[in-house]
Amino acid sequence: MLSLLSFRNVLVALLFLKTEYLKITEATQLPSTSSTTACIENNKFYRNPDRIETSIWTLNECAKYYLCLDNEVFEFKCSDGLLFDVTRQICDFKSNVDNCDVTSEPQSPKPLLDDGNCKNGSLSCADNTCLPDIYFCDGSIDCPDGSDEGWCDEKNDKNAANNCDPLKCNPPECWCSYDGTEVPGNINITDIPQMIVITFDDAINSENYDLYSKLFSNERKNPNGCPVRATFYVSHHYTDYRDVQKLWNIGHEIAAHSITHRGPEEWWSKNATLEDWFDEMIGVSNIIHKFIGWNRQFLMMKEFGFIYDSSIIAPLSDPPIWPYSFDYRIPHSCDEQGQNCPTRSYPGVWELPINQLVVGEYACAVVEECPTDMSVEQVYEMFMLNFERHYLTNRAPFGLHFNSMWFRKPMNIFAFNTFMDYLLSLPDVYFVTSNQVIEWMKKPTSVDDLSSFKPWQCSRKKFTTSEIACDIPNSCKLPSQVLKSQKYLNTCFKCPKQYPWLRNEIGAD
């Protein structure tokens, strides 16, 4: 058992790893204690509030940051050439940091909740304003002081989901376990197919279509004889919808990313409203159909028929975390900086958590955030090490999440091709789409019975004439009232009047 002191030190180490290694590849100096810096205990890193004004924008001062735990302050410093971004809680290059003058993230006041003078069915804001309890942590600010949305973790959300009840939560409608690592379906681990989920995000066009065609050629087949396929989270801008249609025709999964691919990432969890999520996700789904953290997000998904999400970064875990449904409280902590996990229950919506990759002393959620200075042998070893973390333990689905830019290095292509070919030589490893993982979760099936598991079959789909990708698409040069410029859109269908965008997915004039 850990002593309180050693537990605190472990916590500091975990926080240190979490902030530095998830986001950048450069190392950071190990923390030291500081007896002169004031404590700001809000579970976030901050700058010295008493730093000399003339030094605020110096490289040395802006690289320092602090964490206060149990009234003891720990000092950190970014690597040479990097500065600390207090908003994003990461070290980054100088050109990307513009808040050296900001000491800490502002914390909204804590609501009084049941401690206020409110009637039954109501809770109190920090300023004693009484509002219906359903208004708290629903994704929209209602309290005059904003306190109803500022403290929405599982400890403070009065409407938070219950802990897992395995007696009531069973496939196909539901799956949960106490720590997220338990195997569904009462199947022996050696009888479970090791699922490999390859995903790509952003636009599909001539810059990456040939890459996808080569990686997922029909010659590469799963043990059941079906070609390996991937999931593409498509964003609208710069996408060639004829290419999307071709990928869909041959069995790849086309999923929604967003229309605008808006940045920074923190906007999605901190600022996006339910309407924003609707416009972006329903919008891009409508565009695809036409031309081929959080409570707001997950409420949108439940209301409008989305089956699953795959955006929550799970803490580093051995063994890894299995997918789960949102009927109950999520089975792991939500400690990735800037990430707001859902606290409510959303029956019928599933999560494919992102299990981080271990690369030496680093951990990275997506492949392009892993160290970039590796040799071809080290890249291959990275894939193999993390594959075995799944395959030799609980066989939770192994996700590899890419942006096509990562494959611009020939050695990366070679390492990944070698890795894929080795895995395809194993009799119990399958490359499947995200939706196929969910289908397996709903009906856990042993390796020996997969030949009759319909969701993983590759029987030829029957397409209508309009659903089959054309040889020569229409190249549409379209005006955009929003973007104030001409935009191009390739599609097998008739050109719209305007470039499709938020709240005008069909491109109406």
From TrEMBL:
One of its GO terms (molecular function) is hydrolase activity. GO terms for biological process: carbohydrate metabolic process. InterPro entries: CE4, Chitin-bd_dom, Chitin-bd_dom_sf, Glyco_hydro/deAcase_b/a-brl, LDL_receptor-like_sf, LDLR_class-A_CS, LDrepeatLR_classA_rpt. Keywords: Disulfide bond, Signal. Residues 36-102 form the Chitin-binding type-2 domain. PROSITE patterns: CHIT_BIND_II (PS50940), LDLRA_1 (PS01209), LDLRA_2 (PS50068). PANTHER family: CHITIN AND LDLR BINDING DEACETYLASE 3, PTHR45985. This is Chitin-binding type-2 domain-containing protein.
